[in-house]
């Protein structure tokens, strides 16, 4: 469907902090979760509400609103997507977690799949796919292919930083998907890394750089 770049000042400020070469693992992790949280806020703003009744503090019966029967699965792409997971689940604690394991071959830049475990009733769920980085788009397209094979029809992608090349490829392959990001950056370098980017997000989150 579309690319949504979230220009909210908190999002832009936190993303800016993540770009610092001297950032600690602790700060990088915290910010990845905080941005996951803020992107979730944006990606869920059209959720439907329905009225429901409850007994309030003084015993009165009152009408309140609640989210209407929305089944959600959150899908972190291993490893780096785990770095956003807590931030997303903080806002949607009832979501089921599905996991897709993929790494990008360093030479070919092609995604290599090594794990998948999906929640039940995927055809009834809205899927929120998490990965800090959308570079060539190969890993995201492979994930979206898997989710559709499982029956998913409603999918939103949450990435901290996206490269224009990858966004174009993902939306060409999956035009029904919405992508929420804090930034569409300039381009990919000759090794497929996003510029200005964040470097290797998985290594920074897992402390393996
Ligand atoms: O758009 P692409 O060109 O496919 O690249 C993006 C992918 O690369 C990174 O994962 P990586 O392969 O480094 O695995 P990791 O999360 O285990 O570090 C990143 O987290 C994405 O999953
Ligand atoms: O810039 C990039 C590209 C792929 N994976 C990352 O972690 N960073
Ligand atoms: Mg990595």
TrEMBL record:
Protein name: Uracil phosphoribosyltransferase
Record-level Gene Ontology MF annotations: glycosyltransferase activity
Taxonomy of the source species: Bacteria, Pseudomonadati, Pseudomonadota, Gammaproteobacteria, Alteromonadales
Keyword Transmembrane helix: no
Signal sequence interval, chain numbering: none
Catalytic activity annotation: UMP + diphosphate = 5-phospho-alpha-D-ribose 1-diphosphate + uracil
EC number, as in UniProt: 2.4.2.9
Residues bound to 5-phospho-alpha-D-ribose 1-diphosphate: 79, 104, 131-139, 200
Keyword Glycosyltransferase: yes
